[in-house]
Amino acid sequence: MIGYINGEVLFSDGKEVVLKTRDGVGYQVYLNKLLVEGTKAELFIAHVFRDAGQELFGFTTLRDKKLFELLTSVKGVGPKSAYSLISALGSDTVIQAVQLENKKTLSKAPGVGAKAAAQICLDLGSKIQSVLMYKGDCESPFIVSGDLTESLSSNMPMFSNANTSPILEEALMACKELGFKEDSILPKAQKILSENDIQRSEQLVHLVLKEV
């Protein structure tokens, strides 16, 4: 299953993008953003399997990808509707709308009716907050020049060294968004960092939550 792709933008029309990876394979991905052809880009991918074939949906953050996967678990909400929700409203608005049971806001997205909005609130009310543990921002989602590997290491905090403060800070922020107090989380997080090879804040959050 494909979860992440980086490569050269061969085609982009604001609805789809074709990315050519270093091994010469071109992946066609749904992406509601217009990219500059000839530049380099990186995307998180939700790989959807259907009877008629396979589809790839692209996201600039891991939080968007995880929210998409959660939305598609709701009865009556297909990949296109879930993608429309995130593209039209943004993940933070979707999460807040579900928490507040704001069906009117959810139904503003194309392809999402009142019935689907109500089902989303019903099914995800107790689950939606878990998405907040995943990284929701990206300093450089689209690399437009220079070596891709070098650009990623310098611009993406989640690929930084495991012992650097950004990973710890991002993990603490995610845990606080989930309702945990920093003074109870910090010692556990520091201990886990010192004993494990942590490369992303999401890994640290998962390990911390196992101990609380």
For the terminal residues, how far apart are their CA atoms?
31 Å
**Physical arrangement of strands within the biggest beta sheet:** 3-2-1-4-5
Strand count, sense and barrel status of the largest sheet are: 5 strands, antiparallel
The H-and-E topology, N to C, reads as: EEEEEHHHHHHHHH
Count of structural domains: 3
How many DSSP-defined strands? 5
Can you describe what's shown?
It is a single chain. The protein has 212 residues and is of the alpha+beta class. It has three domains: 80 residues, Beta Barrel (OB fold (Dihydrolipoamide Acetyltransferase, E2P)); 72 residues, 5' to 3' exonuclease, C-terminal subdomain (DNA polymerase, domain 1, Orthogonal Bundle); 52 residues, Helicase, Ruva Protein, domain 3 (Orthogonal Bundle). It contains nine helices and five strands. The protein has a five-stranded antiparallel sheet with strand order 3-2-1-4-5. A hairpin with a 5-residue loop joins strand 2 and strand 3. Helix 2 crosses helix 3 and helix 7 packs across helix 9. The longest helix is centred in the C-terminal third of the chain and has 14 residues. It is globular and about 45 Å long. About 12% of the residues have low confidence.
In short:
This protein is of the alpha+beta class.
What descriptors fit this protein?
single chain, Helicase, Ruva Protein, domain 3, 3 domains, five-stranded antiparallel sheet, 17% strand
Layout: helices, strands, pairs:
Layout: E1 4-12, E2 16-20, E3 26-30, E4 40-50, E5 53-59, H1 62-71, H2 79-89, H3 91-99, H4 103-106, H5 114-124, H6 148-155, H7 165-177, H8 182-195, H9 201-211
Antiparallel strand pairs: 1-2, 1-4, 2-3, 4-5
